[in-house]
Amino acid sequence: MSIIATKLCAHRSSIFCCLLLAACCSLLSGCAGVQSAVDPAGPQAGSISGLWWLMLYTLSAVFVIVICFVLVAAFRRRRPLSGESADGPDTRPEAEQERRMSRTVIAGVALTILILFVLLVSSYLTGRKIYSAGYSAQGALMIEVTGHQWWWDVRYNDPSPSRMVTTANEIHIPVGRAVVFRLTSADVIHSFWIPNLHGKMDLIPGHYTNIWIKADRAGTYRGQCAEFCGYQHAHMAFTVVVEPEEQYRAWYESQLRSAPQPSTPQQARGQEVFLSSPCIMCHRVQGTDAGGRAGPDLTHIGTRPTLGAGTVENTRGNLAGWVIDPQKIKPGIRMPPNNLEPQDLQALLDYLQSLK
Amino acid sequence: MSARRTIDVSHLPTYAFRHRALTWYATWSMILMEGTMLVVFLISYFFLRTRVTNWPPGVMKPPDLLWGTVNLGIILVSAIPNQFAKKASEKLDLRGVRLWMIVTFLFAIAFSVVRIFEFAALNCRWDDNAYGSIVWANMVFHTTHLLTDVADTIVLIILMFVGPIEGKRFVDVSENCIYWDFVVVMWLMVYAVIYIGPRLT
Amino acid sequence: MSGAAAPLRNDEALVDAIVDEREALEKTWNDPPGFLGWLMSTNHKRVGKRFITTAFVFFILGGILAVLMRVQLARPENNFLGPDLYNQIFTMHGTTMMFLFAVPMMEAMAVYLVPLMVGTRSIAFPRLNAFGYWVYLFGGTMIYVAFILNVGPDAGWFSYVPLSGPDYSPGKRVDFWAQLITFTEVSALVVSTELITTIFKLRAPGMSLNRIPLYVWSILVTSFMIFFAMPTVALASVSLMMDRLVGTHFFNPAEGGDPILWQHLFWFFGHPEVYIIFIPATGFVSTIIPTFVRRPAFGYTALVLSLISTGFIGFGLWVHHMFAVGLPRMGESFFTAATMMIVIPSGIQIFCWIATIWGGRPIFKTPFIFVLGFFFTFVLGGMTGVMQASIPVDLQVHDTYFVVAHFHYVLIGGSVFPLFGALYYWMPKFTGRMLSERLGKINFWLMFIGFNLTFFPMHQLGLKGMTRRVYTYPAEMGWADMNLAATAGGVLLTLGVLVFIINFFRSVRSGELAGDNPWNAGTLEWATSSPPPVYNFLRLPTVAGRDTLWTQPDDQPEVVGLRSDVRQVLVTKMLDAEPDHIEEFPTPTIWPLLAALATTLLFIASIFTPWAVVWGSIPVAVALIGWFWPRKRQADERPPEDIKEKVGEEKAIRLMEETP
């Protein structure tokens, strides 16, 4: 299905062009993308996009036919009427034509029902395929994701507590292995969505929802919160890295390790600044006294691609801006501004960037 | 001249009872929308019930049966004078209307007084938990309709004494009796859910 | 009445009699003079025009908010609006369009048109009608004042808990939203009551159920839907208020409440709401097409049954807004099937309309062109609707711009285009003057092109991952060009609406006079002058068939015998519209306005203290009693036959005279 879909995808612009406004046509760029529902990187998204293309083509055809009927009905040539009745209403329409029209309408309704039935069945079958548990519990990776205003707490479950990994706003998964996400929320309703891999699933306080995915294609994808969750709903993204099994294992092992001890005096001073500041009220750095849970875990912040759940790239400059006044970058978030001496700030940045 | 054909309606009556009257449609519209609201309240009750294992949750007790059941008796009996008032209104029997409306009204007052004791015996507060909230919501909802109808009845009784008495007024009385029947039926449903519901396991 | 005037031309005495009768009726039905009289008005046409104008003003306000959002989204990482303002604006936009424009506008048109189309003097319960308007006006004003004072709601027009609950939306913003729902609900319910009663009981003699104009059928179905949908959202919003104000726990998961309950309640209202907006629009289409293709609608019975079944099925779809909540799969599949099923009645309507056009001789006037535009946009929106009925597809496009595109196609395409068609169609009746055809066509093309340019790219944006309700987006997502196009389209759409406004004022000032029936249409509102006199018809018409003006004989009977010195209205039987009795309607009064003010006081005060419900109900009760207290006896008193049989005629009359 997905192969067909990809092929069809290549011709999409031209088909839309025929169907719809030429002006809109030029806007339709390719469908590849790091956050695209029609660029599937796994079997679930693949099945869904297959169903999507089936529906698009069927329903586009229906649309064209209906509009053709409307246009022909409105603009077809008619026998000229004679004399006075030209403007008057035709209250006694020709019986033969009425019968023909009745038959056509009935045929149209029958065809509608048939098409709907086909689409209903294919939708049902697709749904069954993507939801039936196509994995074994032992082989599957279990990841618990908790939504917060406005970031993602990600926990890799493991039977032995010492092998559990906690991170934030980034998810690494191996190619070809089933991953079960167990989702909930710490505050309001959020929705977990990685378009390239699967449809969305809500995170609801007081409830646990599950969704399982599999990725076929290595790459970096983007996910985003899809349920309006307040002030910074727009900035609640996360990165999904799909990588080969070995790479994934290496990453996992690195995440298991506690934060490295400072290796330079500057870093040591930075750690001191960190531990003596309010940072530790909310943030945790494994291997230190910082154990706050209200904000993202910072044990490996040096390896994260972004800051503020996809708000800005994780560079030294952005990190500095973020530490001093996060409200400038992502107004409304819980983190307060920090008044730091320039030397302290530099030391803190050195320390945070060393957390790899 | 070719005068246009006409239909003369000048002899038609100036009021009519039941489904012939416009107000009958208004009364039933009201019953329809308030009834929808009641049904949704009751569904919400059962929806919230599925969220917890024990109902009422924890160590809470269901509402005491006494006052609610007393009120059930009062309101069921009140349906009888209410029916008499309706019948009297449809016979333009002014004395009957006055008598039976007052009797129904006295029952309604008795019901409202017992309602105060009912609230005291619910064994929960609205802000305890979702159970308390939905129990209170149902009770307050019913009480609102009760008070609305009591107010309406007072006004009609006064009108029936001070006049002007018109056919239309009797139609109003008849509609008011339909509404009281609705309040009775509502209480049957709310009583069954609030009082009996938690006792069934 | 044009039909009546011709045969009487020769008889001066009769002409004089008619002039006298006109004057008498005018005197009886006119509002009292002056500003106070204006406030007291209960005339359905006056109230209807106020209703339409107010709803249109809210449409403009909602449109301005939409333009602001489009400006913000035109570029990535734009700083035109911050998140706080943006969230308020998108909430206000949705709330305005749904609660203050679409539903009231559809009711407003019905308030004006239905009594004329069924051939009666007034809407049933005219005072209630005035009350419904005032409550709506005050509610809408309240929310905009709140918005200007920076307490505009910001949790979305759907106000999902817990985001809208006491913990995550402190302050009064959401309370104003919840109370607005109560205002709109009261207004919608009272207007529905009047419309149902008018349609069932005030039809012209001979207009049996199977001869009711299709537009009136659509209003009947809509009004019943309002009865079942509106109470649900009122209950939801009251529960939300209580959670916020007195500490109940309906939606608090920590205390046994459940945020999903809110979603069920909201969408059990929210989905029928869409049909409450759409079904009257189908009524417009079913009225405009026959007039402009010069033949009766094809498949009257099929069209009526489609409306009714849409009304029923519309209540079985709400869960398709909740596919991502993780409900049991089997139940969800049922809702997929139900959602696809509702396509069938819509399809039947579309096919019948096409057949009507096919079998007729189209005249391409502006109202008809808007209907042709409706076909394009609504059918396209319908197709994307079918896609979203499928759970897997919905899980991808849900809460993305694809959905934004879809519902604007069905709401603007399905309702606003027919509405503009209807405004062009009935404006001559409202004002007595024609709108310009040339400006009308410019208006249409600006709106049509602008609309498609705005919303078509949004399908693509959604598929490329752009979620809804984001105040900005990163540049590297590649969404910028399509967003810019959408903003450009928004400008065209706005210009289109502006052309309409210009056209309106031009027409009122110097438009061509319309005459009674400028389109040579077949329904009763065209049987009286434009604009209609306060009493609607000099003599009530009778009806011999559908499209009565096209089919009736020249000597179709008229109703006589209603007094012209009191507000008498003929009440007919529900099924066959046989004359049943005469009802004397109340005179204009200030009480509905006072009752609306008292209600407003209660509603607004209860945002701040729950005790307002107690003390606030006293002025409401006073106003209602003042409203209903009879001032004087009816002019006539004739008991119905069954009473005469029961108590004897003389006694029945005497009883009335003896009593105080």
Strand content of chain A: 15-25%
Supply Rg of chain C: 26 Å
In terms of per-residue confidence, which ranges of chain C show pLDDT below 50 for 5 or more consecutive residues? 1-8
3D shape of chain C: globular
The portion of residues assigned to helices of chain C is 55-70%
Figure out the total of helices of chain C.
Answer: 23
Please describe what this structure looks like.
The complex is a heterotrimer of chains A (356), B (201) and C (660). Chain A is α+β, with helices and mostly antiparallel strands. Chain A has ten helices and twelve strands. Chain A has a five-stranded mixed beta sheet with strand order 3-2-1-5-8. Chain A is elongated and about 100 Å long. Chain B is mostly helical. Chain B has helices spanning 22-49, 65-89, 94-120, 130-162, 167-196, and one strand at residues 6-8. The radius of gyration of chain B is 21 Å and the shape is elongated. Chain B starts with 5 loop residues before the first strand and ends in a 5-residue tail after the last helix. Chain C is mostly helical. Chain C has a two-stranded antiparallel sheet. The longest helix of chain C is centred in the N-terminal third of the chain and has 36 residues, at 83-118. The two termini of chain C are 43 Å apart. Classes of the chains: A alpha+beta (356), B mainly alpha (201), C mainly alpha (660). At the A-C interface, α3 and α4 of A face α5, α11, α12, α13 and α14 of C. β1 (6-8) of chain B pairs parallel with β1 of chain C, so a sheet runs across the interface.
